[in-house]
Amino acid sequence: MASSFRRLGALIAVVTLLGAACGGSTSSAPTASESAAPSEAGVVEIRWYCCLGGGGVDETMATEDAAVAAFNDAHPNIHVTREVVAYQAARDQLSQEISGDNAPDIVGPVGVGGSEAFHGQWLDLTDLIASTNYDLSQYAEGTVDFYNVGGEGQIGLPFAVYPTILFYQKDMFEEAGLNEPPHNYGDQYEMPDGSMVDWDYETIDEIAKLMTVDANGNNATDAAFDAANVVQFGFEPYRDDVRGLGANFGAGSLVAADGKTVEIPSEWEAAWEWYYGAMWEDHTVMQGAQFDSDEFNPEGYPFCTARVAMEINYLWSTYCLGGAGENWDIAAVPSYNGTTTAPLNADTFRIMKESKHPAEAFEFLTYLLGDGSQDLLQVYGGLSAREAQQDAFFAGLDESYPYEVDWQVAKASLAFADNPNWEAFMPAYNETLDRLNIFGTKLRVEGTLDLGAEIDTLTTDIQAIWDAAK
């Protein structure tokens, strides 16, 4: 799952909405599967470590135990036990087990950020996929490649995915005399004068000004616009992590090809500059104090207050849409410089390199991703990467939000996932993330920054962190 605490809390709320829960465990007591009687001689023991991401809470344990029991019943030659560790302690505990030559066989559910805390520890599944003729065609386009990492191989397979989409308020577009954004990737946008333009961030900038409105009804293009009294904002980007914000303009990594030099992608710098200008010059995006206020943002994301016309966010942010009214829909994310990127959050299960029984662990892995996945996805609140299961997930959302939402857009977004993913490996991961968060906070709260100088300082500081960690 994504690394931010906001993401964790949001996911807990998502599954509450869907009748379950997702998040960190609050208990590390043995589960029913852990307490099972010892297996017979000759039976391969496989240990499932939970949880570096979702799972492990009371609402999910029964389903997880049932998955283990069903697998054990169908595979007399394999016996799976599940180790549950509280989310707050899960990384430290797993580190201790690895260093003590007691690594589990399979870990999850875990997202990219949680996995990168154990960079280089995951098994390349390429040979196992080939030897078992495992069918990769069942997965949505782009999701298998998402886990094919240069230098490491196929270190995972898709399970739960959360594509980026654009949420928008239909009535705000109508009131501004604007056409709704395109739902099909590649389609252009029709401006009020009838001209057709690319659906990109320049277009977003223009129409966001028309839907940013002050207390007197003036929009951001009017001479009388009062930027100190905005009551409706035109746009909100995903901003929990500046890497994710940057990835909306293009996939990339902070790490240069040599694996040790900081190299901020030009697309990320452009995204940060665009965001900063929209916030402090155009006033179409919320500044920090507004974003953090209960008036605009009591639910974690401002779109859920019906005070924002458009928001770029992940599918898991549907958790709070009950407050967004009944007239919203979703559309294609905009492009940048002719390239469309829809950053992806994703959770899966991974096999550790140190597993003494990789073939049996792979058999359990494919069960979790296949026959055991439907109930697990329901309690985790995730969209299946297997295309055959996706309609059922959206049918569940339709029950909560019966507004004729075009969920096909979310499916189509998967083909534009960022690779490398923005949460991928970087040296001194946690220390680097702390420095990036400081930079993100400055963007939100200081309106007179020399942004180029700030980015130069950020680069220097991260390089110092990496050099010290060698």
Task: Lay out the secondary structure.
Elements lengths: L4 H13 L26 E7 L7 H17 L3 E7 L2 H13 L6 E6 H5 L9 H6 L16 E2 L3 E2 L5 E10 H6 L13 E2 L5 E2 L3 H10 L2 E2 L15 E3 L9 H6 L18 H15 L7 H4 L18 E5 L13 E4 L3 E2 L2 E2 L3 E8 L6 H12 L3 H8 L2 E2 L2 H14 L7 H6 L15 H17 L5 H18 L2
Parallel strand pairs: 1-2, 1-3
Antiparallel strand pairs: 3-15, 4-5, 6-11, 6-12, 6-15, 6-16, 7-8, 9-10, 13-14
Helix pairs in contact: 2-12, 15-16
Brief sketch in words of this structure:
With 470 residues, the chain is α+β, with helices and mostly antiparallel strands. It contains 16 helices and 16 strands.
Task: Write structural notes for this entry.
This protein is α+β, with helices and mostly antiparallel strands and 470 residues long. It has two domains: 5-162 and 345-409, 3-Layer(aba) Sandwich (D-Maltodextrin-Binding Protein, domain 2), CATH 3.40.190; 163-343 and 423-468, D-Maltodextrin-Binding Protein, domain 2 (3-Layer(aba) Sandwich). Helix content is 36%, strand content 14%. It has 16 helices and 16 strands. The protein has helices at residues 5-17, 58-74, 87-99, 112-116, 126-131, 170-175, 201-210, 242-247, 266-280, 288-291, 358-369, 373-380, 387-400, 408-413, 429-445, 451-468, and strands at residues 44-50, 78-84, 106-111, 148-149, 153-154, 160-169, 189-190, 196-197, 213-214, 230-232, 310-314, 328-331, 335-336, 339-340, 344-351, 383-384. Strands 1, 2, 3, 6, 11, 12, 15 and 16 form an eight-stranded mixed beta sheet that branches. β1, α2 and β2 (78-84) form a beta-alpha-beta unit. α15 packs antiparallel against α16 (451-468). The radius of gyration is 23 Å and the shape is globular. Residues 1-39 have low confidence and may be disordered.
